Amino acid sequence: MSTTNKRAALRTRPGSARGTAVSVRTAVRTSRPPNRQMARWADAALGRRAHGAQISVLLVGPSRSRTLNARYRDRDRPTNVLSFPATGEAQRHGGLLGDLVICPAVLAAEARSQGKRLAAHWAHLVVHGVLHLVGFDHEREQDALRMERREIRVLRGLGFGNPYR
């Protein structure tokens, strides 16, 4: 077993009949919001779709983030969050929406450089990633505006400000 696998910890928030179940694996030592907090943010992003939904979150370092970003998005740099929507049987019958890969080091550096509270940026990236899992995108300007409006509305409902200011 590799050192990374030995260090990786699996923490699961028990699923509830009403909300999103979030399981988090950490491949790096980092501070992070509790699973229940991430589940609350995911629930807010999903609205009515939260019932019975499941999301897996993997926390990685910059090197792994860069590798995944290069492989799946052709961008050779670490990124804050990547989203991998579930497909097939897991999605249709198991309620699995997909996987988020978050790089806490990139997230924290962005929060510092943008003058944002760390919790606010975590909330934004979880909401952003979850919206990708359910089909939101920002490749075209019209889609980006729709996604940003949804993020702003959701984050406002959670007590956070506009992340784009």
Topology diagram in text:
Layout: H1 3-7, E1 9-12, E2 21-26, H2 35-46, E3 54-59, H3 62-73, E4 81-85, H4 88-94, E5 96-102, H5 104-114, H6 118-133, H7 141-157
Parallel strand pairs: 2-3, 3-5
Antiparallel strand pairs: 1-2, 4-5
Helix pairs in contact: 2-6, 5-6, 6-7
Provide the descriptors you would attach to this structure in a database record.
165 residues; alpha/beta; Collagenase (Catalytic Domain); 5-stranded mixed β-sheet; 7 helices; 5 strands; 48% helix; globular; disordered N terminus
Strand adjacency order, main sheet: 1-2-3-5-4
- Structural class estimated from helices and strands: alpha/beta
The count of helical stretches stands at 7
CATH architecture tag? 3-Layer(aba) Sandwich
Task: Describe the protein.
The chain is globular. It has a five-stranded mixed β-sheet with strand order 1-2-3-5-4, sandwiched between helices. By secondary structure, it is α/β, with parallel strands linked by helices. A hairpin with an 8-residue loop joins strand 1 (9-12) and strand 2. It is 48% helix and 17% strand. The model is unreliable at 1-17 (pLDDT under 50). It has seven helices and five strands; from the N terminus they run αββαβαβαβααα. The longest helix has 17 residues, at 141-157.
